[in-house]
């Protein structure tokens, strides 16, 4: 899926470079590679974690990632990262909306797994059923990657390379799931 674009007209190479950066984020996160992830940030970056905790500067971001990412390698779930929207604020600044969706290590979307008839712990195979919402909530409580996330990155381009300057991650629940709960 191609991201929606807005703002300053930019060459396709910049769009491709940003989509590639998000793919690098996904690769580093799915494979628990803290150093590869940290390389994507500017030295003076600010990252707000899903529950609002700020992590500032490359050293603090690196220490956090080296402490947290390796533990995710053995978890049964990870996430995909999709660049949904790029707003070029100027030729060297872009706001990027990223959708993260939980998947099994085999690449099956958690949404699809919960919709499948006969999935243990579900009554109808319909994600909106009360049993599925409870099962999903239980997964989120025990496996944080089970929660869908949305991220907003502010990227800056320096020396021809896009890097993360500011990142805000937010754990979210889809509106349909909230209504069914």
Beta-strand segment tally:
7
The unreliable regions are: 122-127, 175-181
The averaged pLDDT comes out at 83
**Strand fraction:** 25-35%
Distance between the termini: 30 Å
Q: Compute the number of helices.
A: 6
Assembly state: single chain
Assign an overall shape. globular
Sheet/helix structural class: alpha/beta
The helix content, as a percent range, equals 25-40%
Main beta sheet: strand number and arrangement? 7 strands, mixed
The SSE string, one letter per element, is: EHHEEHEEHHEEH
Major sheet: order of its strands?
Answer: 1-4-5-6-7-2-3
Gyration radius, rounded:
17 Å
Description:
The protein is α/β, with parallel strands linked by helices. The chain has helices at 12-30, 34-38, 57-72, 110-115, 130-142, 175-180, and strands at residues 4-7, 41-48, 54-56, 77-90, 93-104, 149-158, 161-171. Strands 1-4-5-6-7-2-3 form a 7-stranded mixed sheet, with helices on one face. Strand 4 and strand 5 (93-104) form a beta hairpin. The longest helix is centred in the first third of the chain and has 19 residues, at 12-30. It is globular. The two termini are 30 Å apart. Mean pLDDT is 83; it is low at 122-127 and 175-181.
């Amino acid at each position: 899926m191609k991201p929606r674009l807005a703002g300053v007209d930019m060459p396709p190479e910049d769009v491709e470079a940003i989509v590639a950066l998000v793919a690098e984020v996904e690769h580093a996160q799915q494979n628990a590679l803290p150093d590869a992830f940290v390389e994507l940030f500017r030295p003076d970056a600010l990252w707000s974690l899903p529950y609002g905790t700020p992590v500032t500067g490359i050293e603090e971001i690196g220490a956090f990632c080296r402490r947290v990412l390796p533990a995710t390698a053995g978890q049964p779930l990870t996430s995909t990262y999709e660049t949904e929207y790029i707003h070029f604020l100027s030729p060297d600044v872009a706001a990027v909306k990223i959708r993260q969706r939980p998947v099994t290590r085999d690449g099956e979307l958690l949404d699809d797994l919960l919709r499948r008839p006969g999935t243990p712990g579900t009554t109808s195979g319909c994600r909106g059923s009360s049993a599925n919402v409870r099962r999903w909530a239980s997964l989120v409580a025990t496996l944080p990657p089970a929660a869908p996330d949305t991220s907003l990155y502010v990227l800056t381009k320096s020396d021809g390379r896009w890097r993360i300057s500011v990142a805000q991650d937010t754990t979210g629940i889809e509106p349909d799931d909230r209504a069914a709960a």
